[in-house]
């Protein structure tokens, strides 16, 4: 009985270590990128920003990740984030996968220090030129996701 328990515990420990190592390798080598940040629309509550999310997996193993929770900040101050979901994606080895396009609403209250010149400038721009770069809001993002069941948090990266 004790030997069976010992072998079961050892097997569980090996499985856990292998999952940790593959998640660590994926998190160190993978890249979650934000593509085409753009203002999709505005409403009474704020600006809605659309982002395309791509994941690169340069490792030799396929992995399963949860939909990343993307947090936007400006000069380190939190602005908004996507809600967490239970969606999972399988990323094949040595490939790039496009995940869902996400929308993040930046409330006007979060943009108070930029709002003075931003509203005027936004209204003056033609529809095709209403981009984040033209509004000159310094934005960074970071993401949190689970890679094969192990939590991974990225460092902040600048969008604009």
Report on the architecture of this protein.
The chain is of the alpha+beta class. It has a single domain, classed as Immunoglobulins (Immunoglobulin-like), CATH 2.60.40. The protein is built from three helices and ten strands. Strands 4, 5, 8, 9 and 10 form a five-stranded antiparallel sheet that branches. A three-stranded antiparallel sheet has the order 1-2-7. A two-stranded antiparallel sheet has the order 3-6. β8 and β9 form a beta hairpin. It is elongated, with a radius of gyration of 20 Å. The N and C termini lie far apart (61 Å).
Straight-line distance between termini: 61 Å
Tally the beta strands: 10
CATH level 4 superfamily = Immunoglobulins
The total domain count is 1
Under CATH, the topology can be stated as: Immunoglobulin-like
Rg to the nearest angstrom? Answer: 20 Å
Main pleated sheet: 5 strands, antiparallel
